[in-house]
Design brief:
By secondary structure, the protein is of the alpha+beta class. The chain folds into 2 domains: 2-232, 3-Layer(aba) Sandwich (Rossmann fold), CATH 3.40.50; 242-349, no CATH class. Helices cover 28% and strands 22% of the residues. The chain is built from 13 helices and 18 strands. An 8-stranded mixed sheet has the order 5-4-3-2-6-7-12-8, sandwiched between helices. Strands 1-9-11-10 form a 4-stranded antiparallel sheet. The longest helix has 14 residues, at 21-34.
Amino acid sequence: MANKNLTNARKAKNDEFYTQFSDIQKEVESYLEYDPNTFKGKVVYSNCDDPYESNFFRYFVLNFNRLGLKRLISTSYKPSLVANKFIINEVGDIDGDGSFTLEDISKQLRANKNNEWTPLEGDGDFRSDECVKLLKQSDIVVTNPPFSLFKEYIKQLFDYDKKFIILGNKGSVIYKEIFPLFQKNKLWSGKTEWGGGMWFETTNTDDVDKVIDGKNMKNVPSVWLTNIDHGRRHQKIPLMTMNDNRKFNKRIQKDPNSYKKYDNYNAIEVPFTNAIPSDYDGIMGVPISFLDKYPPEQFEILWQASGNTRASAPQKILDNLGYNKNKEDRGGCGIVNGKRVYSRILIKHKKK
């Protein structure tokens, strides 16, 4: 038991990444551009957020009226301390100084005026009965869940049919439990484009990349994931023909594997998303980063060519991909001229 507790403590420590206010604001505001009523009359639940420290709580409480929220709920995981539950039903200038700040919220909570501040019975684990009860009351979940429990976390959201905007590790998109959700258009990339990772404040002093404004910061390969619509999702990727890419795309010219057929799939290798040929009707293997730009009206996702593909793909899918087991593929990665390529998403143009 002691070893298990130590392992859990280490996981918890490595999961303590605090999202920057500006990153939350940038992502959430983009949904309002597509639909100004995204949050109107909704109950927002941040179930992995200490209200005292979370910028998710700070953002939503400061923008409570502007977003038109019905209620804001925030709970946090505190294994050794008291875990708190904040329920905000109303915000306003309680001290009469002419402005609304977090100090007003603090005073409202202390006075228990139309809002609730109570300790949880348990430790605030999102899987606990009391947190699940709060989840059932919510409409939209917005938070940064523990990456070590991400598969379990996202399964719960779908089990209870919740809308969400959450952060996940970039590598999670090809998990066998997560990827089919992309394929079936039940999950997609958030509005913020994938880049070189996001900066988080960390409490793990043993793993700090840099200090910014006196705060220990860590760069983590993270992406926003959601099932709420936004405009970028429907922007088609501009494409050239295969011949034009060969003439004008220098990256394609430098890659000897470009457009070559895989040894173990009836598909061609497309090493860069911007090099997808507009005039190829067959199956194409594209980088995982394609999921960031994936417009469902333009392409169909067939499957992935990456580790454990054979283990998680139905035989019918493998047959449709023309998959032939290759001793070099080690679970399903694409092979070109006897050598493995990076993980790929297998796609086709949608028929017009």
